[in-house]
Design brief:
By secondary structure, this protein is of the alpha/beta class. The protein has 13 helices and ten strands. The strands form two sheets. Strands 1, 2, 6, 7, 8, 9 and 10 form a seven-stranded mixed beta sheet that branches. Strand 1 and strand 2 form a beta hairpin.
Length: 309
């Protein structure tokens, strides 16, 4: 502990990149569990920059659960309003089921399973064959974890629900999904960049593990702040903890491709937090994915489901 933070030699998650008159401090975690593992080592705090450790001193009203609890929440235990989160998620899933594409079964000379009645009758086409599936395509989703101070809990919650729903929609349309949370911010010529993998291609989606980093304010205001406090910054991060960069600069720094999906703050995605169906439609309209996947109209279909039970 020397009061200057961690360095790449001792911290496997950190890479420092120099170039274009910027110094980039990149933290990359392959899972939310790695975030917890890093912080449980109580990494050295850069006390030369962070005179006050806001990850600890911020009030619970503003930043949520105390730091030690916030760290433990990373791999489970955070359940505040989770029942409501699941309830609204299921409402969107009900709409998705009406649009789900089912592989057609036909009779054939060869296939995956026998058509017993046809076999007994001596018919030449006595096997069932499923139509061929398309080759799976990869889609990467980048979700900015930060949001404006005026953002409501309902906006944050609905964005999380709709982001996970988007993953389900893509997988229904034969995509493999890579889902990452990130923060990018800067002070003067220094950039802090943090990425956390929440789902890799082919990996099962675990809503419970995604819920806290997507919707828990303590993840942003304690966990991410504690990570910053261990960065070997040289500029004055101690006051602001960084200014969030806009989409244009974020895409450039993180090399987010045009074919990738960028999810901004709830307000950037036109999410108001009042009606999950309206927010889902506004979110998908913002992304403009109609030429890539079959999109439900949640406002129309949702009303029918609610009326019909």
């Amino acid at each position: 502990m020397n009061g200057t933070g961690v360095n790449p030699e001792e911290c496997k998650y950190l890479e420092i990149i120099e170039g274009n008159n910027l110094t980039e401090y990149k933290m990359y975690f392959r899972s939310i569990g790695e975030v917890q593992s890093f912080l449980r080592t109580d990494p050295d705090i850069n006390s030369e920059i962070f005179y006050e450790q806001k990850s600890k001193t911020s009030s619970e009203d503003f930043a949520g659960a105390p730091l030690d609890i916030a760290i433990n929440y990373c791999i489970g235990g955070y359940s505040e309003n989770y029942d409501q989160f699941l309830k609204l998620s299921r409402q969107l899933e009900q709409v998705n089921k009406k649009k789900a594409k089912v592989r057609q079964t036909t009779t054939s000379f060869v296939g995956q399973r026998p058509n017993v009645p046809a076999y007994i009758a001596g018919a030449p086409k006595n096997m069932y064959r499923l139509e061929r599936t398309e080759e799976k395509k990869l889609k990467r989703i980048w979700m900015k974890v930060t949001y404006e101070s005026a953002t409501t809990e309902e906006q944050i919650r609905n964005r999380g629900i709709i982001a996970l729903n988007l993953i389900n929609l893509l997988e229904m349309n034969n995509y493999l999904v890579d889902f990452r949370l990130f923060e990018v911010c800067n002070v003067d010529s220094e950039v802090f960049r943090c990425e956390v993998d929440l789902k890799r291609p082919g990996q099962r989606l675990h809503p419970r593990l995604c819920y806290y980093p997507m919707c828990g304010k303590a993840f942003v205001r304690r966990v991410l702040c504690r990570i910053k406090e261990s960065m070997p910054f040289k500029c004055g991060w101690g006051l602001s903890y960084g200014v969030v960069m806009n989409e244009q600069y974020t895409r450039m720094i993180m090399d987010i491709q045009d074919r990738d999906i960028y999810i901004g703050s709830p307000s950037e995605m036109n999410i108001k937090g009042l009606n999950i169906y309206e927010d889902a439609d506004a979110f998908l309209e913002k992304l403009d994915l109609g030429d890539k996947i079959v999109l439900p109209s949640y406002r129309e279909e949702g009303v029918q489901i609610s009326v019909g039970g």
